[in-house]
Amino acid sequence: MTNVTTNFNDRTIEYEQLLNDFKNLLKKNNLKFTIQREVILETLYNSDEHLTPESLHRLIQEKFPELKTGIATIYRTLALLEESNMVTSLSFGAQGKKYELGAKEHHDHMICTECGNITEFVDEEIEERQHSIAEALGFEMSDHSMQIYGICAKCQKTTK
Amino acid sequence: MTNVTTNFNDRTIEYEQLLNDFKNLLKKNNLKFTIQREVILETLYNSDEHLTPESLHRLIQEKFPELKTGIATIYRTLALLEESNMVTSLSFGAQGKKYELGAKEHHDHMICTECGNITEFVDEEIEERQHSIAEALGFEMSDHSMQIYGICAKCQKTTK
DNA sequence: GTCGCTGCAAAGTCTTTGCAGAGAG
DNA sequence: CTCTCTGCAAAGACTTTGCAGCGAC
Asked: Is the Cβ atom of B34 within 7 Å of strand D at any atom?
């Protein structure tokens, strides 16, 4: 029972498919597909990092300076994507919200308190237990997030 | 191995002890023990809720209107308490930061996405796994937080 | 007394909103 | 053409900071 493994290894979700989902989402809600929205999705897709609205904005300005994308559009689009569950946000201490594409496989986060870097991981045993716990507490579980804080291997060396 | 249970059931940490810890902390850092600081600690202790700076402020103003405690003092004291690991903060979606006394036993959170209420729980199996994972990834784990989101029993009834 | 603390108000951040022109469908 | 989007700048929400008087030790 504890060993059931949800096979979730479709790591490479094609950008095309993602884009299509996005377009459908927009169509369904009578919203428009604009260059800005596409660029935001694409930048999220191509980033391995968890991005803050500001870092996303900076990236986009560097890559597509001619668009002069405003920060407000970033916020508006991220809100839209989050509502539709296409991206997920994480909030840490003072560092504000960071966003990542939710279309990637589910995973949890291990965060280095020294350098701020984030490593992703999945542990099926924990996933299982979470469901059991939710059930035991009478919750209809929809989602979860887990963060482990510590000092990463690299920083342990540096500090020493 | 998976069954070792860290016995962590000292639920009732006396306020006296907590207060002493706080006083020692202050003394150690050449800080002063003020009524405002005491009231903040006490209010956190007596609250079962996870409090935002603002809700803490409101509570204190209601109970001790003569102190006219300023919101800035709340923020300053919470920062102090958090630095010294006497309180822990959680940040959720848009709702900002919420604080709770960290002196209570460790636990994770199950959050109702309908009513916003938070149920606490501990699961030893998960605690164990977290350590294993951190180790496997080369992290020196210091802390973690886990939130499960869903709809609580009460809200499931209401919505139906 | 000394030096940290407090409340107040002002200054910062980060995020959201109003608006008029631009652009997708 | 219509109606949503966008950038801009202004407004908001939340948090931090500077300061002068207050109070713990």
From this structure: yes
Going from the first residue of chain B to its last (160 residues), give the mean pLDDT of each consecutive group of 10, the final group possibly shorter: 34 77 94 97 89 95 94 97 86 67 72 72 88 89 80 72
User: Which CATH number does the domain B10-104 belong to among 3.40.440.10, 1.10.3720.10, 1.10.10.10, 1.10.260.40?
Assistant: 1.10.10.10
- The DSSP bridge pattern shows strands B118-121 and B108-112 to be antiparallel
Q: Could you report the per-residue pLDDT of A125-159, keeping only the tens digit for each?
A: 888 888 998 898 888 887 787 888 777 887 777 65
CATH architecture assignment, domain A106-160:
2-Layer Sandwich (3.30)
Our measurement of CA B95 to C1' D6, in angstroms, reads: 27
Do B97 and B53 meet the contact criterion of CB atoms below 8 Å apart? yes
Partner B contacted by A160 (CB < 8 A): no
* For A145, nearest residue in chain B (alpha carbons): B147
Q: Which residues of B touch A143 (CB under 8 A)?
A: 148-150
Q: Which nucleotide is nearest to B37 (CA to C1')?
A: C5
